[in-house]
Amino acid sequence: MSDADVASVAGVPVAQACADLLELLSGVSDGRSSQGRDHSAAVVLALVAAATVAGMTGYTAMAGWVTDVPQPALTDLYLRAGVLPAGRPSRSTLWRVCTDTDPQDLDTAIGAWTTARRSGLDPVAEASPENDPAPQSAPADLVRLDGETVCGAVDADGQQLHLLAALAGGVEPGTPVVVIGQVDVAGAKTNEPARARDLLETLDLDGRTVTADASHTVKATAELIHARSGHFLFPVKENRRALFDALNTLPWPSVPVAASRIDTSHGRITRRTIQVLPARPAYRFPTSTRSG
């Protein structure tokens, strides 16, 4: 493989993939002392990020990709990180740095970078101050909360890792989205709503609309979003029985359909319609203005 081929693996130049992210990663620690350390955490994490962008999965593939990075590009990366070149990090070094890095600090750095890349802002300027986990950014139209259990990842107690992410994107179907923040959900999945509020506290919600599944249709979350100048669109199901029954008694047959769409995802054909009525005080759901 030639230097030119390696320098633009998957169409993404190494220098470009690591450019702004490198400075953000300089604030991420892997717990090692700087004395006697050959490879800085920022350089290793930047190489891992570039290898991931190039399509590498697993530490063996990443280490092989790093081996093929042209020496001038590798030297430039070390120098821009403010350290002297020290060969190429091995597979064990990649693994050790990735597993020992503080996950919250890494999430903050990556969140600031992906948010800024999406909005066209300077990711370094938009990164949060030290000890502030909130990557401030230009508002997107929509913020969607989505929780997923990570396959093959377990914590020190052997429990599978469950993450709750905030994804920013436009309202139109097919619009690209980016993860602008995420938190781990310890214990039962029922802890998601509380962790969602922790996550929302770190985001700029001014003018944004937050959506989530029915487990997040709780008063505390609605009040938090409203207090941070955001909006919410939450589904109501049987987990909110009183509210569900109250909405079910409304005269929906006489309400005109505001929008309709055929959904063919998940192996089935579903017709989704939207009908809207003013919210009623009797619902006792804070700050709501519309029901549908």
List the helices and strands and how they pair.
Layout: H1 3-6, H2 14-25, H3 41-53, H4 59-68, H5 71-80, H6 91-100, H7 103-119, H8 123-126, E1 142-154, E2 160-169, E3 178-184, H9 192-200, E4 209-211, H10 219-227, E5 231-233, H11 241-248, E6 259-263, E7 270-274, E8 277-278, E9 290-291
Parallel strand pairs: 1-4, 4-5
Antiparallel strand pairs: 1-2, 2-3, 6-7, 8-9
Helix pairs in contact: 2-3, 2-5, 2-7, 3-4, 3-6, 4-6, 9-10
Would you give an account of this structure?
Pfam families: DDE_Tnp_1, DDE_Tnp_1_assoc. It comes from Micromonospora sonneratiae. This is ISAs1 family transposase. Keywords: Membrane, Transmembrane, Transmembrane helix. By secondary structure, this protein is α/β, with parallel strands linked by helices. It has 3 domains: about 5-100, no CATH class; about 140-235, no CATH class; about 235-290, no CATH class. Helices cover about 35% and strands about 15% of the residues. The protein has 11 helices and 9 strands. A 5-stranded mixed β-sheet has the order 3-2-1-4-5. A two-stranded antiparallel sheet has the order 6-7. Strand 2 (about 160-170) and strand 3 (about 180-185) form a beta hairpin. The longest helix is centred in the middle third of the chain and has 17 residues, at about 105-120. It is elongated.
